[in-house]
Amino acid sequence: MARIVMKFGGTSVGDIDRIKNVARRVKAEVEAGNEVAVVVSAMSGETNKLVDFCRQIAPLHDAREYDAVVSTGEQVTIGLLALALQEAGVNARSWMGWQLPIRTDGAHSKARITTIETDTIIERMSQGQVAVVAGFQGLGPDNRVTTLGRGGSDTSAVALAAALKADICDIYTDVDGVYTTDPRIVSKARKLDKITYEEMLESASLGAKVLQVRSVEMAMKHNVRVQVRSSFSDAPGTLICDEDEIVEKELVSGIAYSRDEAKITLVKVADRPGVAASIFGPLTDANVNVDMIVQNVSHGGGATDLTFTVTKTDLERAVQVLTDAKETLGYQELVADSNVVKVSVIGVGMRSHAGVAQTMFQALSAKGINIQVISTSEIKVSVLIAEEYTELAIRALHTAYGMDAA
Ligand code: ADP
Ligand code: ASP
Ligand code: MG
């Protein structure tokens, strides 16, 4: 007997038949003698619709009321799944975040889980009752509903698995595992049997939306075994695990991309100490996250161009802040460009092997793709390129690193 957490994403609960399909899968685990807690997302498209309703009423909405609205999608699916389980003869009860409760900090719309009260559901699970828990939502210090950021049900599931000391957290989705890159873009992408926490964390933070970044952080911290698998097939999934559990390490394990990028260039900024601080200080104060940065060395004239990236959502705010401070910063011109994408290659093998970046630059140049900004860390290389080359670049890199499926 094992204790398992099963999480089903939006497409997996997208209509009534799919919810019945989920109930069948849960029932099979219960009949195999396991204790089961299920975490579900809203039906696909529902959260987008709710977010859009808020935007239509108030573009700069109050985050508490936004959470009150967007958390409701999950209330529908927990109730429907509990009903479907009961119809299938399985003892089940639904739980909203506040009912357990799942406590979070007060950062409405992007809250972090702090604690999960599990005594009641553990007792009921031991009596054979399935707990159907709403993903994405929690209870803030002000006793109001919070949400965990888009894709947050993954984090709810991993946090619940950690709190329940579950043997495994199965994330059921519309692909049958973690691939070398988004299988929707590269048909030759290969499914990985295993991937390290670290690589998954990099991939998720660099744009692979198969798991929310925080869910991977949480799994790594609490050593939760996470498996990504399909809710529509029985194919074995991908296990996220420690590096020493992987015998054959690949040099590069994957390629991720993010379209949520925008580039800002400040033309002719003075090249003297303190300038970077005076530019990035006000951006930090305005809660704008800066990611990639390049600055050229000035030649004689004492002025240089400074280029950096922010998320598309932050672009307007960043431009406003920098325009307001133009006098003090003393640059000549601000050029903003949101027609960009960040493409990254990831692999723990890079720590011990040279040449990974070079392969990337060559493959892109062979396709005539210009690299605008580069950034690297121990296990990844990222480049910023024009958005229209997204597919071309990812496919070329996938081939260049020998990752194409036969
Ligand atoms: P869910 O609704 O189940 O949470 P998501 O849409 O959030 O599902 O995540 C699954 C999607 O992630 C897939 O449909 C796929 O297009 C995308 N994806 C991006 N990168 C990868 C990758 N490396 N491996 C698998 N899927 C990926
Ligand atoms: N329903 C939420 C969203 O669409 C949470 C999730 O699906 O993980 O972002
Ligand atoms: Mg998701």
TrEMBL record:
Any one GO cellular component localisation term in the record: cytosol
Enzymatic reactions: L-aspartate + ATP = 4-phospho-L-aspartate + ADP
Ranges for domain ACT: 264-348
Top-level class of the enzyme under EC nomenclature: transferase
Binding site for substrate: 47, 74
Protein's GO biological process: homoserine biosynthetic process; lysine biosynthetic process via diaminopimelate; threonine biosynthetic process
Pfam families in UniProt: AA_kinase, ACT, ACT_9
Keyword Transmembrane in annotation: no
Binding residue positions for ATP: 7-10, 173-174, 179, 184, 209-210
The protein's annotated pathway: Amino-acid biosynthesis; L-threonine biosynthesis; L-threonine from L-aspartate: step 1/5; Amino-acid biosynthesis; L-lysine biosynthesis via DAP pathway; (S)-tetrahydrodipicolinate from L-aspartate: step 1/4; Amino-acid biosynthesis; L-methionine biosynthesis via de novo pathway; L-homoserine from L-aspartate: step 1/3
EC number assigned by the record: 2.7.2.4
UniProt keyword annotations, A-Z: Amino-acid biosynthesis, ATP-binding, Kinase, Lysine biosynthesis, Nucleotide-binding, Transferase
Any GO molecular function: ATP binding
PANTHER family: ASPARTATE KINASE, ASPARTOKINASE
NCBIfam families recorded: asp_kin_monofn (TIGR00656), asp_kinases (TIGR00657), PRK06635.1-2 (NF005154), PRK06635.1-4 (NF005155)
Family: Belongs to the aspartokinase family.
Protein name: Aspartokinase
Species name: Insolitispirillum peregrinum
